[in-house]
Amino acid sequence: MIGGWQREEEAAGLIRTTALAMIATYLGMDHDVVLPQLVARPDQLDRFRSVATQARADYVHLLLVADPSVVVQRFRRRAQRERDEWTAYATRCWDAAGGDDALLDWTARLAAVDPAAARVPSTDQDETYAAVLGVLDGDS
């Protein structure tokens, strides 16, 4: 939903500044914020953590995880099932970067981005949701 994302590689990243301002405002009104996005760069994670700290809000970095082969299978199933422009674009990018081997490499590198992140096994929807709630409630 960000104009220019197909032509400009940095367009999606630029929206983070706007998102951070929105998050700061919402946290400042004593509301919770959940950002359902893969943020895989430590410098970007620091920006989100800083906004939460400045608002005196709790910050939880939660990472849904699955066996790397399952990640690849899910990606390929989604690519076959979904017909939207973003999925087609993402598929082309990963295939150009090395396909399944690139996805496997990425899952290995992602684990090191934030060792303190709460890792929740991504199994079925109900179990995963319950585990996410447990982390947010401080049970994990």
Architecture overview:
It contains 6 helices and 2 strands; from the N terminus they run H-H-E-H-H-H-E-H. It is mainly α. It has 2 domains: 1-59, no CATH class; 61-140, no CATH class. It has a two-stranded parallel ribbon. Helix 1 (11-28) runs parallel beside helix 2 and helix 3 (68-81) packs across helix 5 (100-110). The termini are far apart. The model has no long low-confidence stretch (mean pLDDT 89).
When the domains are counted, the total is 2
Content of β-strand: 5-15%
Structural Rg = 17 Å
N-to-C terminal Cα separation, in Å? 34 Å
| Gross morphology | globular
Overall SS class: mainly alpha
Number of helices: 6
Widest beta sheet: strand line-up: 1-2
Q: Roughly what percent helix?
A: 55-70%
How are helices and strands ordered from N to C? HHEHHHEH
Extract low-pLDDT stretches: none
Give a count of the beta strands, DSSP E runs of length 2 or more: 2
Mean pLDDT: 89
For the largest beta-sheet, the strand count, sense and barrel status come to: 2 strands, parallel
